[in-house]
Specification:
The chain has 12 helices and 15 strands. By secondary structure, it is an alpha/beta fold. The protein folds into 2 domains: 193 residues, Rossmann fold, CATH 3.40.50; 128 residues, Rossmann fold. The strands form 3 sheets. A 7-stranded mixed beta sheet has the order 8-7-9-10-11-14-15, covered by helices on one side. The protein has a 6-stranded mixed beta sheet with strand order 2-3-1-4-5-6, with helices on both faces. Strands 12-13 form a two-stranded antiparallel sheet. Helix 3 packs parallel to helix 4 and helix 5 crosses helix 6. The chain is elongated and about 105 Å long. It starts with a helix and ends with a strand.
Length: 391
């Protein structure tokens, strides 16, 4: 009996110890997390945008995590959801991210998906920062919206400012190629001119495939403009420049991003292109021929090296795309605002986000009252001796 009692006693002791150990481990503090939502498109023909955003956000999180805020150490946890580039799906995804407790969201990729998501996050005062959606109307939806890329109006504002302040033409001709994008951009440019009291001489619209560019060139010869702004593709621009130069009209040609391409010299004589100017909606740090050390290091080292370390993911491309820098800076911006607020709670740090003055890879980041960047810069290029160079 004594032996049996001894075994019962020892067994009881073991059970008590195990219970204490279990309770002790259960009482240990869990890992503290900052959950950041990554809402983007990861399926379909545009999935490379989402992959680009995913890699860039995960890269930034890996560099910043763990981070100390308010006396506590936090791991940054990126929660990625595919909204498929579809507005209905985006609405559901935004609700899912709220339920999972995200404290900030980076996304979405497109105007439509971003538009339906903003009100969902606003209800919980969760900031949403888009690295890519450029629709002007987005900044009018919610007080929780922020945008790192310039919006469509700012893009055209910069074109207008360059034409008025740098070119200062006495006779300016505007030409669109009848495509929706070209017509809208030119319409918007005219609105800005009218608001600022700046006059242009005339506007033409031409379908380069079906209409006679020679007739347009002859009309331009009669108009005698000192500057022509053409919104169209580089091959169309080359064709028009050829027609104009061959009849003896020497005038300054200015275009924008779809008119700038290295291949333009394949479509006309290089001497005709001399002095052609292109205004590109990218900051100097990211635009062609950038010498910015951080941008170069990101493109050549950080991004591709991080991709090599990523497991269980197949990517469409292994180099950073057009919105990767904006996505990367967005994570840094959120954490910077949390640090300044000394809190990870959205209701605490959102005001700090609004008052941000942060030097990112994309340049100086400050927001106006609508959540848009203040004075985001464009970059201007000119053809000299047959090559595009910084203006």
């Amino acid at each position: 009996m004594r032996s049996v009692n001894r075994y019962i006693f020892l067994f009881s002791i073991i059970i008590v110890v195990l219970i204490l150990l279990f309770n002790f481990s259960a009482c240990e503090p869990r890992e503290k997390l900052i959950k950041i939502g990554n809402q983007t498109v990861l399926t379909g023909e545009y999935k490379f945008y989402g992959e680009d955003q995913l890699v860039s956000i995960e890269l930034a999180a890996s560099e910043l995590s763990p981070v100390k805020i308010g006396g506590f150490e936090y791991k940054i946890d990126i929660i990625t959801k595919d909204d498929e580039g579809n507005a209905e799906r985006a609405f559901l995804v935004s609700q899912e991210l709220v339920e999972e407790g995200v404290l900030g969201v980076i996304g979405s990729t497109f105007n439509g998906t971003t538009k339906v998501s903003i009100p969902v996050y606003e209800e919980y005062n969760i900031p949403i920062i888009t690295p890519s959606a450029q629709g002007v109307e987005l900044s009018k939806i919610g007080n929780n919206f922020f945008r790192l890329i310039m919006n469509n109006k700012q893009k055209i504002d910069n074109i207008a400012a360059f034409l008025m302040d740098e070119i200062k033409p006495e006779k300016l001709i505007l030409i669109d190629n009848r495509d929706e994008y070209s017509v809208s951009l030119t319409d918007f440019l005219i609105e800005i001119f009218e608001d600022l009291g700046f006059s242009y001489n005339k506007r033409y619209a031409i379908n380069m495939e079906s209409e006679d560019t020679g007739i347009l060139a002859e009309n331009l010869l009669i108009d005698e403009p000192d500057a022509i702004f053409f919104c169209g593709y580089y091959d169309e621009l080359a064709e028009l420049i050829t027609e104009v130069r061959e009849i003896g009209l020497e005038t300054q040609f200015i275009t924008e991003e779809i008119g700038m391409d290295e291949r333009i010299s394949l479509f006309t004589d290089e001497q005709f292109l001399e002095g052609l100017i292109a205004i590109i909606p990218e900051p100097p740090s990211l635009a062609k021929y950038s010498e910015d050390k951080r941008a170069i290091d990101f493109s050549l080292h950080k991004y591709p090296e991080f991709v090599e370390k990523m497991e269980n993911i197949e990517l469409s491309q292994y180099t950073p795309g057009p919105y990767s820098f904006y996505s990367y800076d967005a994570v840094y911006l959120i954490i910077d605002a949390m640090k300044r607020a000394n809190s990870i709670l959205p209701e605490d740090y959102i005001d700090q986000l609004k008052s941000s003055s942060y030097d990112g890879i994309i340049g100086k980041i400050e927001f106006n009252s609508n959540g848009d960047r203040i004075d985001p810069p464009s970059t201007v290029f000119i053809i000299k001796n047959g090559d595009w160079v910084r203006y």
